[in-house]
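Appendix B, record 7
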Amino acid sequence: MPLVIVKTVEGATAQEKELLIEKMTAVMKDVLGKNPETTQVIIEELPAENWGLRGKSLASIRAGK
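Structure tokens (predicted):
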């Protein structure tokens, strides 16, 4: 039973998440031959202040700080 975990910064719409789940499931089938009926996809969203890049939080970067 394949499991794909996608970690991202919060902000995706429900529609975008549905598309992401669909596409990730298709990739598992196309690349690894996994059964879409048993493929699980989990989307973990984190607040921008909990994600760091280049020594700053994404919240700070987005705010231009």
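Remarks on this record: The first strand starts at residue 3 and ends at 9. Residues 8 and 45 are 5 Å apart (CA to CA).
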